Amino acid sequence: MAEQEFDYIIVGAGTAGCLLANRLSADPANRVLLIEAGGRDNYHWIHIPVGYLYCIDNPRTDWRFRTEPDPGLNGRSLIYPRGKTLGGCSSINGMLYIRGQARDYDSWAEATGDDAWRWENCLPDFMKHEDHHRLDAGGDADAAHRDYHGHGGEWRVEKQRLKWQVLDDFATAAVEAGIPRTRDFNRGDNEGVDYFEVNQRSGWRWSTAKAFLRGAEKRDNLTLWHSTQVLGLELEQGSETGQGGVPRCTGVRVERGGKPTAVRAGLEVILSAGAIGSPQLLQLSGIGPADLLREHEIPVIHDLPGVGENLQDHLQIRSVYRVTGAKTLNTMANSLVGKAGIGLEYLLKRSGPMSMAPSQLCAFTRSSEEYEHPNIEYHVQPLSLPAFGQPLDDFPAITASVCNLNPTSRGTVRIKSADPRQAPAIATHYLSTPEDRKVAADSLRVTRRIAEQPAFAKYSPEEVKPGLEYQSDEELARLAGDIGTTIFHPVGTTRMGRDDDPMAVVDARLRVRGVAGLRVVDAGVMPTITSGNTNSPTLMIAEKAAGWILGGE
């Protein structure tokens, strides 16, 4: 294939990539190429909310990564889903709209020395693409809501189309345990309990491919290559004035239709391949820790030791309670009549269990009084199962999963060879610090305190998992290692930072340090993980980056 040239090449049509493609191609003078390794998002289970069960660990929609055996998980290895289709993780994730806390973004400003990352300066980027249901005609927005939310943007936020009495009562129990009710988790302080709001439209999943790519794809100046594997970056020694001889990224090498080809970028290459894919591509291309590159006989173009370091994720610890006198999905879905009713409700109303996000009820609170801010998050579901992908239990139950919002454990993403088709080694290092083990133990105690409150005690809850025999800090921390699982929020592996920070991969404007013409725009640039679900913060990052790119920064 003959070499082609574009102004901008975006690697990855996921959460960040779809928004960037939309924004950069809005100017017809910009020639934009968007490259996605996965296929089109024409698999029906992508669009039905409960279909995440059939998309995760499915080669049609998921990279199907696995973690290295983890000492913190007592030697276990976990599946590590990452979207491999248009929309990326937004096509297979939980659809939960959570921004995090204001202090998250203020800490990014401190880490980078750039006030552009402060909460008050990130809020407009969240609002720019938002389409919040409470601001619809006839919506129930209050005055404060209008100050924090947008309407008319591409990213739809709606109420869930279901209700469970057992979850209502768990929420009341949480209030009895000292957690306030809230109407909005997204004003900078997310403490409280309520149902999650979701990225859906009328009972269908609303991915970034639908939101940002559908209309933009028709533009003459936007080219989409799906089912195209990026093999590496094209790099040349820089000779432009002001570049100081640093290498410049001039394009990418891809395999398309079974044939290799090179594509040039006149202005920039933008990596939006995610916190696993972007550091892998950098390392494969000779940008990363020099010792790692030499180990795999890759020429060192730029020794950048932070590439693939600083991996952070939210580890969830699932408590299962058997209940009596409550309707749960376990009892509904374990009969042919129940399954038929569920399917009929979705067919007629786009509501009920088939419209369910993976979690319904949310709570943010503190694991102990020593914390001044909420440091744990609950995802509560009216169901239980032994493990993801397995059948529901045959008894009525709920699951209250709790995660540490601000883990101090850090992992790594490192290539295993120079072969771009070989998955990298993902070492999560969960529960590797005393602080994280203590939060794990304390958070399980908070779950028990909620379950003991009168509003929930009427269901005679029995703690099936982990079991009341685990009581001490040591027992609960070891138990967390036995049952903890990822909540699918990897970030931080190409983190931004100050110029004098040797482990920073990108600067405050997300430009790769020491390489011209190359930027990273995805969850990997987060210095620290947000205090909540990470999809919409990644979209905010892309919105901010698009403005900088178009402004020539």
Percent range for β-strand residues: 15-25%
Give the termini separation: 33 Å
Number of strands: 24
Estimated helix fraction: 25-40%
User: How many domain regions?
Assistant: 2
Tell me the name of the CATH class of the largest domain: Alpha Beta
Radius of gyration computed on alpha carbons: 23 Å
General form = globular
Largest sheet, if any? 7 strands, mixed
The CATH topology of the largest domain comes to: FAD/NAD(P)-binding domain
Question: CATH superfamily membership of the largest domain, which one?
Answer: FAD/NAD(P)-binding domain
Structural class: alpha/beta
Helix count, DSSP H or I runs of 4 or more residues: 16
Q: How is this structure best summarized?
A:
By secondary structure, the protein is an alpha/beta fold.
Topology at a glance:
Elements: E1 4-11, H1 15-25, E2 32-35, H2 44-47, H3 52-55, E3 65-66, E4 79-80, H4 102-112, H5 119-128, E5 130-132, H6 143-148, E6 155-157, H7 165-176, E7 192-195, E8 200-201, E9 204-205, H8 208-213, E10 222-225, E11 228-237, E12 247-256, E13 259-271, H9 274-284, E14 287-288, H10 290-295, E15 302-303, E16 315-322, H11 329-333, H12 336-349, E17 361-365, E18 376-381, E19 397-404, E20 412-414, E21 425-427, H13 434-451, H14 454-457, E22 462-465, H15 473-483, E23 485-486, E24 518-520, H16 535-550
Parallel strand pairs: 1-2, 1-13, 2-10, 5-6, 13-24, 14-15
Antiparallel strand pairs: 3-4, 7-17, 8-9, 11-12, 12-13, 16-19, 16-22, 16-23, 17-18, 18-19, 20-21
